[in-house]
Amino acid sequence: MKFRILFSSLYALATIVATFVSAPVKAEVAELKFGSVAMDIPAEMHRRLKPLTKYLTDTLQVPVSLQLSPDMPSAIKEVSAASVDLSYLTPVAYLKAKDKGNVQLIAKTITQGQGSFQLMIVVRDDSPIKKVSDLAGKTFAFGDVAAILQRAVVVGAGMPLEKLGEYKFIGHYDNIARGVKNGDFEAGILKDTTAFKWEKEGLRIIYSSEPLPPYNIVASSKMDPKMVAKVRDAFLKLDSKNPEHEPVIHALDPSYSGFAATSDKEYEVVRTLVAPFEKK
């Protein structure tokens, strides 16, 4: 009798152990935090990114929440320190985050079928300014002081900053566009998609940079490689021709058509452009 009881107990214990061993292991990631550089006011960035985080939540089966940054330095610091897991960054922000925290490129944005973007100098439609050399002595609006690529493009276009009459850093691209439109500044620099939007609102493009590697999605260096692969796959599957994906992509930017694979080497041209502006 004692033997039967002992055998039954051992059998029950073995069954419990086997159940735990054979049970599928649940993902350890409880939540992913998604950050972003501040290209618009927070409410607008929330509107633009919310469909994307919902798509990622549904696709990855892991909650993805927004943790927006007030400015570029904050966005760089947060993904570099893994305070956020993913982030939507400008090319320069990516390079800085790569240097500070060895972030991992997930994918690059595709704009109107192109895997690059341009920075454009704009003036009012009725402005007498026709070319870059006409900017000498004129007031000029830049965005974030950390967005050194904007200054690099203006200097590369042939206008040294000291020849401008005055220049200020006023934040988001829409701030720049409104400042030029309202006459607060005689010229400013915009991302191509913003410039195209404001062409219909009274602005004129007088200069376009060479094609530059675009905005991108990165992951912190601490993200598990398997999760990195899943996130990358989720981005690469987004297609603006898919009626379920189109609202997700176009909420982020109406000119985007999806995402593509990329590499650090592609951003070398930006490293070269901004090198003279980096603090020694």
Topology:
Layout: H1 2-22, E1 32-36, H2 42-60, E2 64-66, H3 72-80, E3 86-89, H4 91-101, E4 104-111, E5 119-124, E6 139-142, H5 148-156, E7 166-169, H6 173-181, E8 187-191, H7 192-199, E9 203-208, E10 216-219, H8 225-237, H9 246-252, E11 256-260, H10 268-274
Walk me through this protein's architecture.
It is a single chain. This protein has helices spanning 2-22, 42-60, 72-80, 91-101, 148-156, 173-181, 192-199, 225-237, 246-252, 268-274; strands spanning 32-36, 64-66, 86-89, 104-111, 119-124, 139-142, 166-169, 187-191, 203-208, 216-219, 256-260. It is α/β, with parallel strands linked by helices and 280 residues long. It has two domains: 32-115 and 213-277, 3-Layer(aba) Sandwich (D-Maltodextrin-Binding Protein, domain 2), CATH 3.40.190; 119-208, Periplasmic binding protein-like II (D-Maltodextrin-Binding Protein, domain 2). Strands 2-1-3-10-4-11 form a six-stranded mixed β-sheet, with helices on both faces. It is globular and about 60 Å long.
